[in-house]
């Protein structure tokens, strides 16, 4: 695409971390095809919606946003709209019947087709729909433009072999497909060579990684192998499944220094009867046993979870079982959801769908309990020093509060002050700060003193250097190293783009 005809794009992402990572690939594909990032969604020549289908309000949000674009489309026929992701995979032709002004519809298995579909729609002056039933190219083999210079997502698998009755993901993402360990480690090493300090291993069910090539211990081995990568400071993963979570993974977490003491372990329900109806192949005591073993091996571990309230047929006794297990689990955070009926899932056809007011009342009780537990757990950290990886955009009120924000090793959010006279860290640098106050969702580390007694220490890092170089490159500041990186987009093993 010549400079004279260069068009701009924006990608709007809904849903999970897998979608966030897919959006990085979409951005990389578009830039490889000659498009440039727009300064805002309003200025973009092409607007791509990467959708989620897990909850009903995701549908409503998408179609609401699309309708708002009608005047823009009518005033500028060259403006293009593309819809991809899980909702596109599910709805297909429905999207064009509800929003006939959309130019491109593509699914989860063929994100690499987007540039060609956009060009075909523009040339033919007709909408293009392309949905594949199986994965065409593993996403990590596509170009990428990373959102962060200091942290990166790395897919280890896509798809899921489970059949949870409430979940539509397996029908949209397909059966599990695993990458080979060597490919994953090579991608991580490439990221680290460009300054990334933290990677998160992604999969719909990470701890079944290896089932496709016949090694059920592959995930624990992969965690240990990441510990051998020089310069990789932090490793996280999401999400595991309690039914397949094994002690070799716990041992690998405990014995690998750069695997962080944080674990997201979806509970979904504390009622054994409801777990059976959900086709979750574990029961509450097994779940609590996993947490006990994790905490025995990693006492400082922060455990988070997902819980669904109001699954069809849930009784008050079932709900009280969820409350019991939540209280016993002492979650650092709980992502609580009201059950959302999804057409195409077995649970959508179950009898005894609960009234909204019943679900709402139970949801509020559960949120109150989980917030209090999270607050109590956070209070235990007051007075303790924590190491924080400084982030770029996580603190929405940092400018008003004169604080910076980052994540502790256990993934808790920390807002901290830089003591007077101390150097300010860059995103990607590490600071040690002493916790002074706890809230349910975050920690504060404010310093009333300076010098050695402040509890504050800064460690500059290669990740901070990478952020500074990217800033220099984006602002056209002369820099020999920055100018040596000719592109922020790469094929296969990714390069790091602007934050």
Explain this structure.
The protein is of the alpha/beta class and 499 residues long. It has three domains: 3-130, Rossmann fold, CATH 3.40.50; 139-379, Alpha-Beta Horseshoe (pyruvate-formate lyase- activating enzyme); 385-460, OB fold (Dihydrolipoamide Acetyltransferase, E2P) (Beta Barrel), CATH 2.40.50. The protein has 17 helices and 21 strands. The chain has helices at 17-32, 56-68, 70-75, 86-91, 93-98, 114-124, 169-173, 181-193, 218-226, 247-255, 272-277, 284-297, 316-329, 356-379, 398-401, 462-474, 480-484; strands at 8-13, 36-37, 46-51, 80-85, 104-106, 128-130, 151-155, 157-158, 177-178, 198-202, 234-238, 262-264, 302-309, 333-338, 385-390, 404-408, 413-416, 430-434, 437-438, 443-445, 457-459. The strands form five sheets. It has a seven-stranded mixed sheet with strand order 19-20-17-16-15-18-21. The chain has a six-stranded parallel sheet with strand order 2-1-3-4-5-6. A hairpin with a 4-residue loop joins β16 (404-408) and β17 (413-416). α9 runs parallel beside α10, α10 runs parallel beside α12 and α13 (316-329) packs parallel to α14. The longest helix has 24 residues, at 356-379. It is globular. The two termini are 24 Å apart. The relative contact order is 0.09.
């Amino acid at each position: 695409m010549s400079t004279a005809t260069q068009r701009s794009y924006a990608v709007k992402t809904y849903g999970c971390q897998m979608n966030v990572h897919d959006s990085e690939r979409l951005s990389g594909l578009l830039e490889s095809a000659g498009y440039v990032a727009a300064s805002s969604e309003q200025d973009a020549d092409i607007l791509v919606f990467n959708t989620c289908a897990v909850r009903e309000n995701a549908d409503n949000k998408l179609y609401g946003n699309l309708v708002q674009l009608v005047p823009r489309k009518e005033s500028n026929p060259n403006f293009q709209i593309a819809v991809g992701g899980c909702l596109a995979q599910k709805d297909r032709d429905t999207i064009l019947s509800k929003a006939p002004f959309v130019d491109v519809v593509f699914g989860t298995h063929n994100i690499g087709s987007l540039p060609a579909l956009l060009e075909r729609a523009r040339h033919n002056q007709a909408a293009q729909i392309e949905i594949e039933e199986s994965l065409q190219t593993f996403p990590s083999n596509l170009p990428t433009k990373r959102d962060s210079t200091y942290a990166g997502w790395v897919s280890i698998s896509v798809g899921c072999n489970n059949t949870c009755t409430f979940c539509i993901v397996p029908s949209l993402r397909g059966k599990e497909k695993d990458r080979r360990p060597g490919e994953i480690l090579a991608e991580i090493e490439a990221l680290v060579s460009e300054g990334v300090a933290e990677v998160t291993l992604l999969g719909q069910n990470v701890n079944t990684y290896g089932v496709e090539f016949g090694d059920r211990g592959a995930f624990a081995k992969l965690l240990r192998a990441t510990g051998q990568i020089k310069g990789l400071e932090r490793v996280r993963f999401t999400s595991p499944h309690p039914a397949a979570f094994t002690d070799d993974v716990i041992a690998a977490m405990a014995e690998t220094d750069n695997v962080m003491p944080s674990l997201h372990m979806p509970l979904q329900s504390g009622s054994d009867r409801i777990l059976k109806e959900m086709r979750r192949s574990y029961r509450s005591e097994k779940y609590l046993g996993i947490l006990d073993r994790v905490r025995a091996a990693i006492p400082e571990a922060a455990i988070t979870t997902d819980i669904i309230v109001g699954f069809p047929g849930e009784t008050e006794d079932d709900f009280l079982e969820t409350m019991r297990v939540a209280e016993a689990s002492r979650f650092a955070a709980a992502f609580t959801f009201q059950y959302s009926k999804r057409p195409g899932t077995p649970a959508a056809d179950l009898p005894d769908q609960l009234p909204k007011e019943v679900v709402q009342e139970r949801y509020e009780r559960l949120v109150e309990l989980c917030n209090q537990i999270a607050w109590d757990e956070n209070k235990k950290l007051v007075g303790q020093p924590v190491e924080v990886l400084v982030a770029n955009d996580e603190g929405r009120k940092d400018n008003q509060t004169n604080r910076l924000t980052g994540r502790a090793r256990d993934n808790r959010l920390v807002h901290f002050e830089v003591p007077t006279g101390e150097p300010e860290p860059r995103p990607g640098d590490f600071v040690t700060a002493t916790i002074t106050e706890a809230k349910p969702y975050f920690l504060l580390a404010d310093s009333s003193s300076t010098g050695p007694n402040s509890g504050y220490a800064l460690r500059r890092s290669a990740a901070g250097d990478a952020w500074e170089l990217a800033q220099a490159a984006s602002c056209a500041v002369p820099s020999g190293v920055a100018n040596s990186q000719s592109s922020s987009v790469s094929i296969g093993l990714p390069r790091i783009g602007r934050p």
